[in-house]
Amino acid sequence: MRTMVSRLAISAGLLMLVAVGVANAQNCSSSIQACGCTINSAGAYTVDSDLTAAQGLTSRGSCIDVAAANVKLFTNGHNITGAGTGTGVGINLLSTAGSLFLAAAGPNSTYTTVSGWQYGMQSLADNVTSEGFYFTGNTTGVLIKDGDNNNLSCFGAYNNSVYGVWVRAGSGNQIDFGGAWNNGVAGVYLGCSGTGPSGQACTGSSHSPSGNFIFEVFSYPGPPPQSYGIAVEKGSKQNSIVDNFFLSNSVDDLFDGNTSGANVWHANKYATANQSFIQ
């Protein structure tokens, strides 16, 4: 009898957990106050409370999925915090989205910190403008994966275990006016490798990022140093890296796995680079 009661109690508990999961798999309202919702319609949305993974996640393991085009998302300085296990996505911009504007500023000069996720923000979308976010304590702060014409501006990406900003595929993306420091492998990385420059270009169905622009990004010197400031993988070409400031990275401040002329390096400030043509 006790065994049957225990089994019934466990089953009831599991049903409650499933019910919570279903409740969190819902459309976002215009006022977002908990993780676990998807934006499925165009319009303006505001985050009105701090969000945490403990509140529930979407079916894709995200705090917020953006699936619609023509969305404006204002996070109002509220933080978006993951479980700290290197899993899930804070803000997930899906390939069905596009023409998006994301702003992190809140009252009294507060900004949104996105931390504790595998990817603080992931973009598979085109034509995205994002400004004012801090990404820290993630595996990678920002991943642009097959997204074109993303503009990541006025950002901080620091103390992430692999990359601050990773452009894995896509073109016309612009990374500007931000800081990327004390990340495990690189502040900004262009290429397919998840572990840094390997001497190999993208293979299979993956294609190298090309035609991207990195402008006025900097790193703070000091421990713990990241291996590379800005690194461009072999096969990633026609990118422009201009007027950036990177010092005290443990391998190279600036790295290009390609031959001269493949990318434009101009007016950068640095101490070490792997190629003599880097300027």
Tell me about this structure:
- The protein is mainly β and 279 residues long.
- The protein has a single domain (2-270), classed as 3 Solenoid (Pectate Lyase C-like).
- The protein contains one helix and 27 strands.
- It has a 15-stranded parallel sheet that branches.
- It is globular and about 55 Å long.
- Mean pLDDT is 91; it is low at 1-24.
Helix-strand makeup class: mainly beta
Number of strand segments = 27
CATH arch. level architecture:
3 Solenoid
| Assembly annotation | single chain
Secondary structure: helix percent: under 10%
Summarize this, please?
The chain is mostly beta strands and 279 residues long. It is 8% helix and 40% strand. The protein has a 15-stranded parallel β-sheet that branches. Strands 1-3-6-9-12-15-18-20-22-25 form a 10-stranded parallel β-sheet. It has a two-stranded parallel ribbon with strand order 24-27.
